[in-house]
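Page 42, continued from yesterday. The earlier attempt failed because a stray header line got pasted into the input along with the sequence. Redoing it now with the clean sequence only.
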Amino acid sequence: MTKPTPRPPTPGSAERARTIAARGGRAAILPSSDNDTDGARIVPLLHHVHSNGTTTFLFGDDHPLVAAAQWAPRAEMTAMLELADAAPVPLREPVRGLLWIAGWLRVLDGDEARSAALEVAKHRPDPRLLDIGHGVAVLRLTPVSIIVADAEGTSSVQPGEFAAAEPDPFALYEDGWLRHLELSHRDVVDLLRRHVTDELRGGHVRPLGLDRFGLRLRVEAVDCDHDVRIAFDRPVTTLKELAGQLRRLLGCPFMAQTHRR
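This time it went through. Structure tokens are written below.
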């Protein structure tokens, strides 16, 4: 009896959720349908997901969502943040992951708003934070449920699990590296084709993602797209370890061994 091929190791759902949040992504708020915003998708001026899943938003003072939250019962309303994690290179299907954080949305005032701005500025300095109190309002989403969906599957993540996890160590560098690979090193991408199954090798191979467990490729075939994960032989956390694993994938075992010493 033939043994099934084991799935390559992947980051856990909480780590994948934290990684999407750390990368920022394209944000939209989906308010509850029982308010004056009519359930529309609303794009904030700025958003930041904190390590515990709480999210801070900036909106113009006159935005309908600000008034809806202020006049809601108990001055808070249910809403959901959707973060779209886009691939770093242009693809036919560019969104490679989605993160949804649902919870209670309210407007922050006075010292609370200023404290929130200072906390965001530590992680994401932005001149728009200086406009708080001068035409810009601060809203805060407190999470109740979190869901992450990507090629690895769709999973529910408890807020406590989200807070306990860490984003991938290469999350903030991945975009630049993979764009450079796509634009300047197509020969390297072609070398990675040998890790793709025979029936997919005729497709257009593109760099899709990189994390501590391996490299992901998108194969754009005539009929549809296929995502392929190429696993490292062990998880990596440093640039030196990453370089060795990438050389191994390219078929340079001696150079990979050199980097392990």
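Notes: DSSP finds eight helices and ten strands in the chain.
Reminder to self: strip header lines before submitting.
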